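REVIEWER CHECKLIST
Item 1: Sequence provided? yes
Item 2: Single chain? yes
Item 3: Sequence as submitted:
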Amino acid sequence: MDVGRRHRVYLGLGSNLGNREENIRKAILLIGERVGTVLRQSSLIETEPWGFESENSFLNGVILVETTFTPRQTLKATQKIERELGRKRKSDSLKKYADRPIDIDILLYDDLTIDEPDLIIPHPLMEQRDFVMIPLREIQK
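Item 4: Structure as written out by the authors:
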């Protein structure tokens, strides 16, 4: 991978705890400061929880970021932002989902395919999730 080369990364954002809109706004601001330039941002859509039961609905959106980071650097930076915004932990190996103030997922990174235990690109479940595909299509136009 070329050092300094600019990459296009689509990130999925979701929140269902606290001030959901503010959580996403803060995440986008921090991503813009620490990961790269936010080129596009979808509308936010309200959705029911996916994969678990909760009374708290989600706000979801997608952003396009131009970055010089590698996929691994992008993952580490977004996980740090999640922790700073109150995320306790990612879903465990049993795929148990839970309420969360913020979730940031790498959906696409250029045209790369990566399949590692903790990093899979394209995101393996994105095509099953309208809350990802609807905002993604909106900004891919």
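Item 5: Key structural point noted by reviewer: The longest helix spans residues 20-34.
Item 6: Recommendation: ____
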